[in-house]
Amino acid sequence: MPPVSRPYIGRFAPSPSGPLHDGSLVAAMASFLDARAHQGAWLLRMEDIDTPRVVPGADHVIMRQLQSLGMQWDGEPVWQSLRLDGYQAAFDALRRQGLVYGCCCSRQALAGMPVYPGTCRHGLLPGQTARSWRVRVPEGVVRFVDRWQGPQEQDLQKEVGDFVIKRADGLWAYQLAVVVDDAHQGITDVVRGVDLLDSTARQLQLAAYLGYGAPRHMHTPLILDKLGRKLSKQNHAPALDLADPLATLNRAWRALGRAPLAASTTDEFWGRAIEKWASIQGPALVVQQAL
Ligand code: GLU
User: Fold this and answer.
1) I want to staple 220 with a disulfide (CB 3.0 to 4.6 A). Which of 24, 30, 81, 216 is the partner?
2) Which residue's CA lies nearest to atom 7 of ligand 1?
3) Does ligand 1 come within 6 angstroms of the Cβ of 179?
4) Burial class (CB in 10 A: 0-12, 13-18, 19+), 220
5) Can you tell me the mean pLDDT for 280-285?
6) What are φ and ψ of residue 98, in 5° steps?
């Protein structure tokens, strides 16, 4: 494993929109293993700012699920709903730099457009009012090396466009909150599902605008359902089976490209899994083993 020059701080950041399922466990497992293999901290953050999607009590269900699988986080969990002042401060800092503008475009007006065309970039016309708030993206390509997926690049202007940091319903956008909190919690390593790979360049850009350091990234495979869709709460993935924790852990471990581990307790499982994870030298091998 390459030497890390700063103490490792990782995190798992579930959205409490329901209990964890086999798919979310893969991301939780990879972030937990990576933190423990680096003798690092593993923090828990409840991403509960998308209030229409939050299911009351799901945060505590998730915590119980993690604990019953032997995944104990360090310190107190953070709830994003208690961190709104931090998002406002970051928004104000971006605004002071002239990087934020109000946008009057409705979702309907932008339907079918994968890239925001910059309609409101040069100001609203008289009579128009801002619904959401966007951050300007610069020209050029954002590059980073993902520890699982390899070298990545994205041209934010061409592939994404200026993106929303405060939504039309007044809620803070995930992209802003995640960057502010990763910096606030001192996260050195973001390990999460590959469905978020496409968000990373936006997040690196925001971090750069806000003067934060960039964490390292590792995006892990997803578990797909029979229709080839990401296993997710929206697709009604069943909650983790805690009646047989070792089978549940081994399913996630296999999704990470590993052969099942023989263990009779969860502690034994983690001891072996952490040792194996730590013995992997560099991203190339991780990729080879996973495919
Ligand atoms: N809350 C996000 C989710 O559950 C994950 C955010 C992240 O890991 O950056 O999909």
Assistant:
1) 30
2) 13
3) no
4) buried
5) 50
6) 75, 25
pLDDT at 224: 82
Residue 118's nearest CA partner among 165, 157, 167 is 157
14 lines ligand 1 (CB under 6 A): yes
d(CA 251, CA 30): 13
Residues 197-217: tens digit of each pLDDT: 999 999 999 999 999 999 999
Question: What ligand 1 atom has the least distance to the C-alpha of 14?
Answer: 4
171 lines ligand 1 (CB under 6 A): no
Atom in ligand 1 nearest the alpha carbon of residue 24:
4
Sheet bearing 150-155, strands edge to edge: 78-79, 41-46, 9-12, 189-193, 216-220, 141-146, 150-155
13 near 180, Cβ under 8 Å?
no
Distance 123 CA to ligand 1 centre (A): 32
Cβ of residue 215 lying under 6 Å from some atom of ligand 1: no
| pLDDT, average across residues 70-75 | 98
